[in-house]
## 1
Amino acid sequence: MFSLPNDIEHVYSPLGRCLYCDATDVLGKEHVLAKSLGGRKIVPRASCAKCGTMTSEFERTVARTMLGPMRMYFDIDSRRRDERPEKLPLKVKLRANGDWSYIDVDRKLYPFLILFPLLNMPGELAGRSADKDQTAKCASFWIRAASFELGIHEHTEMLAQSLKVAAIMPEGRAEVDAFARMLAKVGHSFATAELEGKNFRPATINVIRNANARNALQFVGGSPHSEPTGSTLHDIDFVYVRHDPTLVLVHIRLFAVLGTPTYLVAAGRCDDPEFVGRSSPPADAPITGTQRVS
Ligand SMILES: [Zn+2]
């Protein structure tokens, strides 16, 4: 079975308050990126029960609906293997000139598409004002076809023959709203844990807490630079903006090892001298990629 690398576990100091509502009693640990996606950064005592339920709701949408087949494909978070459906609905044409319909096929044979939304730079970074309607809409996607064996074309041909259907259309789903909220949560929890005690002022809590956050793309977006395939499963760190040194910008690349798009979260502001001091890259350096500090 093909497998992905695991990231190294990192446990921060306990936070002692909820990341999302500042409650201080009965706190559970919070994963910066959900465990179900292979996240290994943990903030102890950082999430109340109510907010834990809220974040796990959109994380579940991303992990199951959007990246479910991919998690099965790469066997991510295999502790919950028993909960996985045995069969998945596959779009097929039973006859060459017929309509598309669905049949259930064994998940081990299921060909699928991996979709990641391609987002513009966050408004905070691009200098856009926040009052425009910026619901997390997305017109284009990074798409990869995947199958559990062979190439995707050989696989769908072989599968069409064995299922006795005329054609197969691999599908994928992107839940852009849930995905944007999840990115905001990753950026927020990472920045809060990393900058604890440094007067970090978060900006994305409303995006995380509000399912209809109309200004999500003011804080969550993508990078115009495409990056080479990464060597780690996920890549989460700060990037620094020379002309705006107090902006806390978190660079997030989920499944970097697959060559996925880069996301940026304008998580808030911090004018701690140590943080601002790190944001003086060489002149003409690009916004991302060359000035990262892990
Ligand atoms: Zn809370």
Note: Residues 95 and 289 are 49 Å apart (CA to CA).
## 2
Amino acid sequence: MLLLQPACAVWHHRSMLTGTCHCGAIEVHAEDTPDEATVCNCSICRRYAATWLHCTQATVTIIAQPDALDTYCWGDEMINFHRCARCGCLTHYTCTEKAGIDRVSVNLNIVPPEQTTGIRRRRFDGADTWQFLDD
Ligand SMILES: [Zn+2]
């Protein structure tokens, strides 16, 4: 994942999802994205009501205004949840070094609907069985 200031941003990819928080202080760009997203019912995801598009660090770029990123890390400290300090929208999560996973998950709900057609939303039972509920 790249974290850039706006002046540094240059885009070369045409097939890219672009989402923003409500006020626009955080932009998230993802390329070569999967065609499935996850709606999880674990204790934090159900509260956030997020839809996660699991990407890798190399395919996601975050552009954040100075001081726009607030982060929440809890429990086993494997995941940092990032939200806008101004408007409160949850934009993405990153995995900590402790997690050892190359993952940046974008909250698909910050991406305009016209960009997300064809992406299947799957319900995941993160609260209990860790299985998809729609198989
Ligand atoms: Zn915002």
Note: The pocket of zinc ion is lined by residues 21-23, 25-26, 84, 86-87, 89 (CB under 6 Å).
